[in-house]
Amino acid sequence: MTAQTKNSLISQTPKPFVHPYFGGMVLGIVLFLALFLTGNGLGSSGATSRFVAAVEDQIAPAHVDRTPYLLKLAGGDKNPLDDWIVPVYFGALLGGFTSGMLGRRVKLETTKGPNISNRTRWLMAFLGGVIFLYGARMARGCTSGQALSGGTTLAAGSWAIMFAIFGGAYALAYFVRKLWN
Amino acid sequence: MQFPLPQFVAVSASNPWTYVVFGLIGFAFGFTLEMSGFGDSRKLAAQFYFTEMTVLKVMFTAIVTAMVLLFGAVGLGILNFNQVWVNPTYLSSGILGGLIMGVGFIVGGFCPTTSLASASTGKIDGMLFMLGGFVGAFLFGETEQYFDGWYTNSGYFGRITLDQVFHLPIGVVVLLIVLMALFMFWGAEQLERIFGKKDLSTEPKLRIAGAGALFVIAVAVVLIGSPNLTDKYNRLTFTRTETIPQLNADPIVNTLTYTADEMIANRLVFVSPAEAFKSKYNQAMNPVYLDVRSEADYNLYHIEDAVNVPLERIDEVIPVLLTEPPANTVFVVTSNDETAAVQAWKILSASSVANVYILEGGVNNWITFFGETDKTLQANPNAGDDQLGFIFPAALGDRYESCSPSPIEYEKLEFEAKIILQLKRDKSGGGCG
């Protein structure tokens, strides 16, 4: 094995993922430290909204001031990017990349079920992103901001949202099984 | 030292370290998601076909780990739970949004943060999910106006936690959730064995020890309990600035820190009747007069718009005071003199209600200040401490002239401003918002 490590094919073999309970424990400690030090949990979908609002504010500031949801984020001279969620978002991108590099998992590829084409997968991923973020903004947070962070702080609504997410996904899973199996 | 650290509650350009701290939190977040395998959509989707329950295991391990640490720290008094962001409950929009998210999850194979871990490791589907996310957020921003009323009001319960819903101590709820999670892990492993054809004997034995440790910590959280009001009161700190003008130079600004008892001793929380009255006409604040006297006294005489909450029942209104009013609300606690008001101030401040002040000299001082011309009120020389110092011909409530002084007559009032508005975080500001 040692003689072959120079071989690019072997060195590209991705390292296995950590055990889920271990990964969850580390994630839990990260979440605790975030709550402990800053009083805020984890999240990311809020940043997506803020980026969109920032772009809209550049193109059509008057429209932003007339739209109630955008007004709260970017109305008047408010800078929508002036929020803790923005550095968390960029940090998460960098952290994911670093972990991927260390685990030799950075590779241009498509992760998909065995019975669909790349194109179908790309379309579905895009569509899923549209749907998910629409729901996330409606629920005022995604799996991270509501289920994970809100679940930890025992927020009643977050627990309802968590069950709704799993409920929605399980209810539809059978009908889209071709995508994944 | 009290956590969370106030300087890290939000990012601010004046303290660039805040960006570093939140950036590092995000880094650790993305790192753990990627190393757990969440950059691969197949691993995430497998959750919904029972072949691999990684999503559930990682998520619930994270929740219970963070939860026992969080409420352990709260119980030990290191962490002030009232300063921790708790997502306010909007039941209707939350459940509908959650169901929509579930659809996006199974169709797209990611959730927003896992798509970041995926995109950053070169997965094209992760990048497209991210891209779709921008479109989804755009669409929500543009369409929210059509259901704004429903979105902001329907099923709104404010800051409500499960212990309040079930009327159980927090520690007990934590323990029950830990037990539920352990049962779910057991169930998840059985499902993986049946649907995923997984050999459970190769699973590390250490996980049993981990489950045991978690259970023990959860029991400890129950035993530690929650800090009582006296502990919280003794840990309160207030900051005030004093500005010393300098000849030919910028004024010197000193920041001073006071304990709650020092705030009372230095009379920093006592507002004069003039300030209490004028704050009504100050656009920046929204004063609420909390009248903590008995209902009988309140019926005899009270300041216009004052809300009667007898001192014995003040605990009942604290959850409302913590969540309901706008951020710029200033509470002015009033008794006949000051004794009951000081007591109420201590309870409210210890419960983390922000911007609480005491009406200096209470209702008696208010009448002396504004009611000079009212001939119907006679001073009562026999009044003891914190009793009404006047004799009232009838229980007119707020219909005496001095209950609602004329803003024209009293337009110019001199007073030393004591109210320093401390803005809480915006309702839509925390969490993922």
Helix and strand topology:
The complex is a heterodimer of chains A (181) and B (433).
Chain A lengths: L7 H4 L8 H19 L6 H15 L1 H6 L1 H7 L10 H18 L15 H21 L4 H10 L3 H18 L3 H4 L1
Helix pairs in contact in A: 8-9
Chain B lengths: L16 H19 L5 H6 L7 H22 L13 E2 H18 L3 H8 L4 H20 L4 H6 L2 E3 L3 H5 L3 H26 L10 H19 L4 H6 L2 E10 L2 E11 H6 L4 E2 L1 H6 L7 E6 L3 H6 L6 E2 L5 H10 L5 E6 L4 H12 L5 E4 L2 H9 L7 E2 L10 E2 L42
Parallel strand pairs in B: 5-9, 6-7, 6-8, 8-9
Antiparallel strand pairs in B: 1-2, 3-4, 10-11
Helix pairs in contact in B: 1-5, 3-9, 3-10, 5-6, 9-10
Largest Cβ-defined interface = A-B, 128 and 139 residues
Specify the oligomeric state: heterodimer
Which structural class is indicated by helix and strand composition of chain A? mainly alpha
CATH class of the largest domain in chain B: Alpha Beta
Helix/strand structural class of chain B: alpha/beta
Helix content of chain B: 40-55%
Q: State the shape of chain A.
A: globular
Uncertain segments of chain A are 1-10
**What number of domains of chain A?**
2
Biggest sheet, spatial arrangement of strands of chain B: 5-9-8-6-7
Cα-based radius of gyration of chain B, to the nearest Å: 28 Å
Number of helices of chain A: 10
Straight-line N-to-C gap of chain A: 34 Å
Q: Helix share of residues of chain A? A: 55-70%
CATH fold label of the largest domain in chain B: Oxidized Rhodanese, domain 1
Second CATH tier, the architecture of the largest domain in chain B: 3-Layer(aba) Sandwich
Q: Biggest β-sheet of chain B, characterized? A: 5 strands, parallel
